[in-house]
Amino acid sequence: MQLPKATLLALLPFLLTQEVTAQASGTGKTTRYWDCCKASCSWTKKTTLASGSNPVLSCDAKDSPLSNYDTKSACDKGTSYMCSNQSPWAVSEDLAYGFAATTIAGGKESSWCCACYELTFTSGAVKGKKMVVQATNTGGDLASNQFDLAIPGGGFGIFNGCTQEFGTPSTGWGAQYGGVSSRSACDAFPAALKAGCYFRFDWFGGSDNPGVTFKQVACPAAITAKSGGGNASY
């Protein structure tokens, strides 16, 4: 069946987006952060989701999921925070799952929000291991093909919602960029964030911003079960 020309022209922007995202792969860099702020992909209208899918969940100050996806971020004088279960975890010795803020070359936020990427680390103690991350956030300070891994104790970065949520000193939890420098520092973290903080010094081997190769993959159910964010419609 041949579609009418008018239909093809109407579909062209969508098809072009499909091509960019379907082929999303290459080399990139990683950083780390945990600012407690509502993730950008938690807002409705940030991406085109498959029927029945939702944006990424956000939580209140007691870590309970919010039903209103458009509740204002705590980092903008609101009451919506990143949920603590959006921390990384080890699946095996060589595979981990998690979440990241990212910027993908050739795309835009609507094309990478809720998408998943398999990262293969190319440097540091974590070299050779793989991590599948879901894009739950973005950032104006991110470079192209950068994955800012959501790791508790990874540094507040530009924003800090943790002081409001947990009473954390504004200078607490390590350096603004990079976070805590020892596993023992994680001992003082809130119970819900300790495992994610330990992850960096255990499975991640204390690696500091390792390089990666990456490719887009289908999101594992174990990831979307935590984020609540469905795969984008592509």
Write a brief caption for the model.
Helix content is 19%, strand content 20%. With 234 residues, it is α+β, with helices and mostly antiparallel strands. It has a single domain (28-227), classed as RlpA-like domain (Barwin-like endoglucanases, Beta Barrel).
Order of SSEs: HEEEHEEEHHEH
Number of H/I helices: 5
| Global morphology | globular
Question: What's the CATH architecture?
Answer: Beta Barrel
CATH topology: Barwin-like endoglucanases
Radius of gyration: 18 Å
Care to count the β-strands?
Answer: 7
Mean pLDDT, to the nearest integer, reads 88
Q: Given the helix and strand composition, which structural class is it?
A: alpha+beta
Amino- and carboxy-terminal Cα gap: 22 Å
Order of neighbouring strands in the sheet with most strands:
1-6-3-5-4-7
Residue share in helices?
Answer: 10-25%
User: What share of the residues does DSSP label as strand, in percent?
Assistant: 15-25%
CATH superfamily: RlpA-like domain
Poorly predicted parts: 6-21
The domain tally reads 1
Largest sheet: 6 strands, mixed, barrel
In CATH, what is the class? Mainly Beta
